[in-house]
Amino acid sequence: MTKKKEIVMSGIRPTGFLHLGNYFGAIRNYVKMQEDFDCYFMVADLHSLTTHPDTKQLRANVHRVLAENIACGLDPDKVALYCQSHVYETSELYLYLNMLAYTGELEKTVTFKDKVRQNPDNINAGLLTYPVLMSADILLHRAKYVPVGKDQEQHLEIARTYVNRFNHRYGKVFPEPYAFNYNQELVKVPSLDGTGKMSKSENQMATLYLADEDDMIRKKVMKTKTDGGPTEINSSKPEYIENIFGLMKLVSSEEVILKFEADYNNCTIRYGDMKKLLAEDMVTFISPIRSKINAILDDKQYLKNVMEKGAAKAGISAKETMKLVRETMGLDY
Ligand code: TRP
């Protein structure tokens, strides 16, 4: 018999368009993990209700996030790819965990304090218990590894606290979940405006989205900041030039990069040529993904099938866990 694979779980918020930073930061990790682990990847549609109670956009956003992740290589036949709201056991576990969650602790969570500041008119209890719901997502599959960014680590710490409280009070059911990423340091994709990393920023011109049309990609790349070039051989690069090289390293060939490195070092670099090449390599990289996204979005029946299959797979694991939870809590009368 083959050894049982370890369990991985993560949630993806259905908010808008994925960009190159998401691709190299998160999705590539998921795609690699699907080979090595038993993976549950979930669209966090219930979480989005905490800040976006209006559901008009939700269907389109859920479809888009599924299409984008599948187009990037997530295989719904290998992983359980599902919607949070389709697995009702989540809500039951969320309720039990709420009894182990102290409001004082939740009020101190950084993400909660941020959201209160951003959204002072809608400080609902769901927002406060956001980490409890996230813990339920993870514990529902008794997952050990959770591929997430730094901003989610406090939530994982909270999940571990509930694991320990539950296991101690009722009996050992859950393992402690930990953040997991393949590369020691997540690949940072630099922003096109010369500073920081690519993000879902206010400045959409500094971010390359997987949905961007070819001409938009070219336009964004050509707009990146450069200067007159180095005047002394082997000088160090300013951040905005370093960033252009950084972007090149993601999509261009080794040969091309070495050529421009050499040109930089002997002060013959032509940034216009460099950006043109980068733009074309970006187009070559992004456009097949964009086409795949659009083809998937056009096939609503396929998306429905993916969600149904995903919910069925997640449901098996969820039902097993919840049976154990009820028994362990003594609710099996
Ligand atoms: N809170 C996560 C985010 O903002 C999304 C999420 C919801 C999640 N449930 C999860 C992540 C479970 C990991 C595991 O990105």
Architecture overview:
The protein has 2 domains: 7-180 and 300-329, HUPs (Rossmann fold); 204-293, Orthogonal Bundle (Tyrosyl-Transfer RNA Synthetase), CATH 1.10.240. Strands 1-2-3 form a 3-stranded parallel sheet, with helices on both faces. The chain is built from 14 helices and 5 strands. Strand 4 (145-146), helix 9 (153-169) and strand 5 (178-179) form a beta-alpha-beta unit. 55% of the residues lie in helices and 6% in strands. The chain has helices at residues 20-36, 45-49, 58-71, 89-98, 103-107, 110-118, 125-128, 130-139, 153-169, 214-222, 239-251, 254-265, 271-298, 300-329, and strands at 7-12, 38-43, 80-83, 145-146, 178-179. Helix 4 crosses helix 14 (300-329). With 333 residues, the chain is mostly helical. The structure holds tryptophan.
Look at the helices and sheets and give the structural class: mainly alpha
- Identify every distinct bound molecule in the structure, by name, code or SMILES: tryptophan
Instruction: Please report the distance between the alpha carbons of the first and last residues.
Output: 36 Å
Largest sheet: 3 strands, parallel
Query: What's the CATH H-level superfamily name of the largest domain?
Result: HUPs
CATH architectural name of the largest domain? 3-Layer(aba) Sandwich
Query: How many helical elements?
Result: 14
Provide the residue-averaged pLDDT.
95
Query: Which CATH top level class of the largest domain fits?
Result: Alpha Beta
Shape: elongated
The tally of structural domains comes to 2
The number of distinct β-strands equals 5
CATH topology of the largest domain, by name, is: Rossmann fold
What percent strand? 5-15%
H and E order: EHEHHEHHHHHEHEHHHHH
Oligomer: single chain
Poorly predicted ranges (pLDDT <50, ≥5 residues)?
Answer: none
Q: Radius of gyration from the CA trace?
A: 22 Å
Percent helix among the residues? 40-55%
Strand order of the largest sheet: 1-2-3
